[in-house]
Amino acid sequence: MTREVRHNYPPTFAAYAGDSHSATAKNMVSDVFLLAFWAAMVPVSMWIGSAAGF
Question: Which pLDDT tens digit goes with each residue over 7-52?
Fold first, then answer.
């Protein structure tokens, strides 16, 4: 008995929003900016918490 575990997901998060499942340069750039935004929120949240006295 075999089970297929591979899925046919698009390679970028932004490709989920569109009709096509192809990775374009625009989709990849938007993914990088989204990741950079969330990565920047970690030190910002820690700085705000430190400034508030937590």
Answer: 666 666 665 665 555 678 888 899 899 999 999 999 999 999 999 9
Amino acid at 43: P
What are the tokens at 46? 């820690």
In the block, which residue shows the tokens 């750039």?
Answer: 29
d(CA 42, CA 44): 5
Residue 41 CA to its chain's centroid (Å): 13
Number of residues that this document lists for the chain: 54
Q: Measure the CA–CA gap between 10 and 20, rounded to whole angstroms.
A: 9
